[in-house]
Amino acid sequence: MTAQDDQLGWLLKTWRARLAPSDAGLPSGGPRRAAGLRREELAALAGLSVDYVVRLEQGRARHPSDQVATALARALQLDDAERDHLFRSAGLLPPTSAVVSRHIPPGVQRLVGRLRETPVAVFSASWDLLTWSPLWGRLLGDPEGWPAGERNIVVRAFRDARREADPAAAVEEDRTRTSTGGADTAVRTRHLDGSGGARFRAALVADLRRALVDHPADPHLRGLVDGLLASEPAFAALWAQGAVGVHESARKVMDHPLVGPLELDCDVFTVPGSELAIVAYTAAEGSPAAAALDFLRVGAVGAAGAPGADLVGDPGTEEARVG
Predict the structure, then answer these.
(1) Are 8 and 25 a contacting pair, CB within 8 Å?
(2) What are phi and psi of 239, to 5 degrees?
(3) What are the residue ranges spanned by the domains of the chain?
(4) How many CB atoms lie within 10 A of CB 96?
(5) Please, which residues bridge with residue 252 across strands?
(6) Residue partners of 284: CB distance under 8 A and separation at least 6
(7) Domain 106-322 is found in CATH 3.30.450
(8) What are residue 282's phi and psi, to 5 degrees?
(9) Is 234 left (phi over 0), alpha (psi -120 to 50) or beta?
(10) Residue 6: its pLDDT value, please?
(11) Whether 156 contacts 150, CB under 8 Å
(12) SS (HEC) of the chain
């Protein structure tokens, strides 16, 4: 076999050969020349014609519909990873859950728990903040005190960009927030990529577009996008342009009210097998920013309580905090 051979046909033949008739609820039918299901048996299980199965395996039909791919995956008893590979080999998008998952796997929970001395947080595919380390809260402001609806990195990124573009309106907004008990003392972020954060915001818009394609029935995600389209002209413009972007390692300056400006590296990590994103901030060893993080870390440890404290809340369904 070579890399140029038809992958879909080869996969179907391989998966058919490994499935015994008895495992599919079929009689063995006596001796067989080859292991596994016959083509006519696979066709019957999937509700397809034998001729179509032959053409798929021989590479003469390479673009089955979603319904056909789903039927083949079910008939061949594929697991989720194999089903997704079948869909991709057929040029299809793998099926996804109806809503964005907020589940944090135990391994990710333990990872964040062990990174208590690093500003680190976990986000969903819609960029909702799910859990964070104590030092994250000391650096960016405690999310517990953020206004309702703003524990989302996309909302905050476009809000901050709008405030920077219109300082007078930002002052009035702060005055209103204070009078209604919704003051937000989080630090302000400056991007050092030469774009003023434009590339970062384009990547966020692309992320939400991708999430909406994967989870079109998620009411929270739909409401988030609709709200941003209505309230943030910059978001609406990028959305209309079909903005595309990817996340890269970035250097940012955090203007912190206690320790002043901190120049930090920001990295986004993905979690295999999930749609989660882990965001971490680090400082160069021996730098002023590292010393400032050490200062904030003392307060974070004191506020977090016992060193062995675990996630608070149910990380599978609700926002949880490492604290």
Answers:
(1) no
(2) -65, -45
(3) 7-89, 106-322
(4) 18
(5) 191, 264
(6) 265, 290
(7) yes
(8) -135, 160
(9) alpha
(10) 75
(11) yes
(12) CCCCCCHHHHHHHHHHHHCCHHHHCCCCCCCCCCCCCCHHHHHHHHCCCHHHHHHHHCCCCCCCCHHHHHHHHHHCCCCHHHHHHHHHHCCCCCCCCCCCCCCCCHHHHHHHHHCCCCCEEEECCCCEEEEECHHHHHHHCCHHHCCCCCCEHHHHHHHHHHHHHCHHHHHHHHHHHHHCCCCCCCCEEEECCCCCCHHHHHHHHHHHHHHHHHCCCCHHHHHHHHHHHHHCHHHHHHHHCCCCCCCCCEEEEEEECCCEEEEEEEEEEECCCCCCEEEEEECCCCCHHHHHHHHHHHHHHHHHCCCCCCEECCCCCCCCEEC
Domain 7-89 and domain 106-322 have a common topology: no
What single letter denotes the amino acid at residue 122?
V
Smallest CA-to-CA distance from 216 within 97, 92, 89, 85 is with 97
- Cβ 252 vs Cβ 189: under 8 Å: yes
* pLDDT given for residue 186 in this prediction: 56
Max alpha carbon distance in the chain (Å)? 84
Provide the CATH topology of domain 7-89. Answer: 434 Repressor (Amino-terminal Domain) (1.10.260)
* pLDDT value for 33: 80
CA distances from 47 to 35, 218, 309 (A): 21, 31, 54
What is the arrangement of strands in the sheet containing 277-282, beginning at the earlier edge strand?
129-132, 120-123, 277-282, 260-270, 250-256, 188-191
Q: What is the pLDDT of residue 71?
A: 93
pLDDT at position 62: 84
- The model's pTM is 0.70
| pLDDT averages per 10-residue partition of the chain, 323 residues | 66 93 82 85 93 93 90 91 90 82 90 89 95 92 84 93 73 52 60 80 92 89 96 94 79 90 93 90 95 87 41 41 44
